[in-house]
Specification:
alpha/beta, 367 residues, transferase, Aspartate Aminotransferase, domain 1, 4-stranded antiparallel β-sheet, Aspartate Aminotransferase, domain 2, globular
């Protein structure tokens, strides 16, 4: 948190605008559009809420199929099930660790032949790295399938000079406490379709009809962002570029110090854009390095340094065990060998050196 966030929050308290509406919410939506290039935006209580609304707005319902990236957090697929639909997972490519466009093409061709096209595609932009959007959008348009971009982890990244999340029918973002900017909890839904975003706001505010009494013709949700948290978001937006620079510097320091070790490869930055490096991630070949990711994770934990495996692919999650997956080998390999390093925007040189020295210490013991 910085000074501007506190000023905006104080203003919310001073004017008694505490509820999930207010001038900070309106301003946050407008300023978010200015920063990202989105046409219209609705601020909501979480990225998951934004994705739930997005799926409902494009007509996903009971019995629908929705194609989704497999290498991602469960929140990318959970809202599909809220609506009675079933996720179908697509493997990653090696270039970006995101959805493989060729596998998506094959999946849609096969489903078109049997007359069973999915209702939507949820494309996740992972760890600050944009997926290769153009071929994915092209094949979605070819079959008339709406594209929802889950850019929860990719605010501050670019794809061919534009912000991931602004290409498809709907984009969603998260401001959870671990994201590159945070409102402690919150999210944003964006679209070029003004009416669609207006409908999102309506549904997110309990779908209350315009009447002097409380009247409801549709089922709604309590999903709007509070004016207080929107004030925090306004302050955070002002330092987004600084946060991206700090995250990219973390990667550069780690890469410079560890990139030449046998068996270590860092998550690549695809040529079609700039990653925000929200998290610095690497893979480790245990035969070449001498230790696997779990051994390294445990060794660092003993020094009070937290690391984590990369996301466990959703097709391997017990809750999605019955769901189809197209491919899966790449995501499974990345999960088996991948590790996320401490990546906070406020890491000091001393912090980074402590992580680096701990990994070097593991290597010296096994080499």
């Amino acid at each position: 948190m910085g000074d501007r966030e506190q000023e905006f929050v104080k203003e919310a308290f001073d004017t008694n605008w505490i509820a999930p509406v207010g001038p900070h919410v309106d301003a946050f939506e407008q300023e978010f559009c200015q920063v990202t290039g989105a046409a219209h935006a609705a601020a909501v209580s979480s990225g998951t809420a934004a994705l739930h609304l997005a799926l409902q707005l494009i007509g996903v319902g009971y019995g629908s199929e929705v194609i989704c990236s497999t290498l991602t957090f469960a929140a990318s697929a959970n809202p599909i099930t809220y609506l009675g639909a079933k996720p179908v997972f697509i493997d990653s490519d090696r270039i970006s660790w995101n959805m493989n466009p060729d596998l998506l093409q094959e999946a849609l061709e096969q489903r078109d032949r049997i007359g069973k096209l999915p209702k939507a595609v949820v494309l996740v932009h992972l760890y600050g790295q944009s997926a290769d959007i153009e071929p994915i959008l092209k094949v979605c348009n070819q079959y008339g399938i709406p594209l929802i971009e889950d850019a929860a982890e990719a605010l501050g990244a670019t794809y061919k000079g534009r912000t991931p999340g602004t290409f498809g029918n709907i984009g969603i973002y998260s401001f959870n406490g671990n994201k590159i900017i945070t409102t402690s909890g919150g999210g944003m839904l964006v679209s070029d379709d003004r009416d669609l975003v207006a409908k999102a706001r309506f549904l997110a505010t309990q779908a209350r009809d315009p009447a002097p009494h409380y009247q409801h013709s549709e089922i709604g949700y309590n999903y709007r962002l509070s004016n207080v948290l929107a004030g925090i978001g306004r302050g955070q937006l002002q330092v987004l570029n600084d946060r991206v620079a700090a995250r990219r510097r973390n990667y550069e320091v780690y890469s410079s110090a560890l990139g030449n070790l046998p068996g270590i490869e860092f998550m690549p930055e695809a040529s079609f854009g700039n990653s925000s490096r929200w998290l610095t991630c690497l893979t480790i070949d245990p035969e070449t390095f001498g230790a696997n990711t779990e051994q390294i994770r445990i060794a660092l934990a003993k020094q009070q340094i937290e690391t984590r495996p990369v996301w466990k692919p959703l097709h391997l999650q017990p809750v999605f065990a019955e769901c189809e997956c197209i491919g899966g080998e790449v995501a499974e390999d990345l999960f088996a060998r991948g590790l996320c390093l401490p990546s906070g925007s406020n890491l000091t040189d001393t912090d980074l050196k402590r992580v680096i020295d701990a990994i070097l210490s593991v290597y010296s013991l096994v080499s």
